[in-house]
Amino acid sequence: MNQIAALPSRAVIAVSGPDARSFLNGLLSQEVETLASSELRFSGLLTPQGRLLYDLFVAGVEDGLLLDVAAEHRDAILTRLTMYKLRAKVELAASPLGVFAAWPAAGGFPDPRLPALGSRLYAEDQATTATEDDYEAHRLALGVPGPADWGTDKTYPIEADFDLLNGIDFKKGCFVGQETTSRMKRRGTIKNRMLPIVFDGPAPAFGTEVLAGELRAGEVLSGRDGRAMALLRLDRIEGADLTADGRAVTVDRPDWLPAA
Q1: How does pLDDT run across 40-98, given as a tens digit for each residue?
Q2: Per the domain annotation, does 176 fall within a domain?
Q3: Containing H/E element for 74?
């Protein structure tokens, strides 16, 4: 049975004008110039130092582009994009469209991160059969991290698995934060990744240490009963007995994530 949920934690920015694609292409971690109408791409807006400021989806539509962003950050994203605009022929505006998720995919734009996530729809109104909490449980079950896990200006996008979820195009031209991102990938210096963990009972508090014996192996991020995301040191979790808050935890490596 298809589930459709409104995602009030998300909001839409409309981008139009002859320079819209080239403008965004120079800023975002994903290629935008070749984005087709009716296509959706996952991306990040980074700091010049390569840390993740905001996640976003870019949707190609007939009269321009739509940016699917965190609702709490829409004004800040509009301000930042306007700062970068300079003389580019681009129009940026908050859109009244709402964001909806359907799983399995049912119309709209297939989610570019993972087919099992379904599709995303942009409309002022849409009949729903589920809640955003249901969708978050679905996302977490697939082991896909979300905005609550990476915060703002704290995490490198590769640590948040953007490279494995089609959020970075390493073949495109320059974008803000590209140098650090490309260097991490090229040198293989990926020491930490967000991975799902399972345990008995309620989720440990955000920031709780994950220990491998007496060694710090990472920290718990967002979660719910029995399951959470964690930012983990890859060199300390293989074959280790892990604990958090005095309880045993186990890494549940999703099938989309390559073996260590």
Answers
A1: 999 999 999 999 999 999 999 999 999 999 999 999 999 999 999 988 999 999 999 99
A2: no
A3: helix 74-85
From CA 172, how far away is CA 180, in angstroms rounded? 15
Give Cβ neighbours of residue 101 (< 8 Å, ≥ 6 apart): 4, 5, 7, 111, 117, 118, 119, 120, 121, 135
Q: Where residue 152 falls among pLDDT bands split at 50, 70, 90? A: confident
Give a yes or no: residue 177 inside a domain. Answer: no
Identify whether 38 is part of a domain. Answer: yes
Nearest to 141 by CA among 202, 208, 203, 223: 223
pTM above 0.90?
A: yes
The domain of 244 spans 191-251
Q: Backbone phi, then psi, for 244, in 5-degree steps?
A: -150, 130
pLDDT value of residue 186:
80
pLDDT at 260 over 70: no
Is 27 found in the same domain as 122? yes
The C-alpha R_g of the chain, in whole angstroms, comes to 19
> For 16-48, b where at least 16 C-beta lie within 10 A, e where not — what string?
beebbbebbbbbbbbbbeebeeeebbbbbbbee
Domain total in the chain: 2
